[in-house]
Design a protein that fits this description.
Layout lengths: L17 H20 L4 H4 L10 H20 L6 H4 L18 H20 L22 H27 L5
Amino acid sequence: MVMPAVPPVEPAQSLTDPRELLIAYLDHYRATLLHKLDGLSEKELRTSHLPSGWTPLELLKHLALVERRWLRWGFTAEAMDHATAWQDEDPANGRWRVGEDESAESVRALFLAECARSREIVHGAELSDLAAEGGRFTPPAGRPALSWILFHILQEYARHVGHIDVVRELADGATGE
């Protein structure tokens, strides 16, 4: 099985505005993640190729919840219980999980919805804006600026897209962007 021929394009080298560059790279990594998962069957998406045991579908759900935790629950302090914010983790062992009742399509839809909501939040704020109090950031924890949160999310994507590179190669030999 091979990935579709056209991978996402890296943001233009001419981008100099830090906000535009940050947003463009986040979208690039979001698209690259989905690209890496394209072409994998439901079975392959639910199969681990690593000693740690996580699956590609669990990674996708994890990154959807990363978006939720850092931007909705974190930056905007949207009211949310712990279980909703951390529904990608098994409470018994802390490992990522996707329920048998969750299809690959439903996890992908969750990811796309969380990314869309994140874009709305970022569109309505300045990089220097501090996270709202409450939600994830309650005293005595500090309130990070949106720029810090976005850089944190960006590094998480970069790390996990690197992980999925390896998993995809182990799954079916596909390499490249």
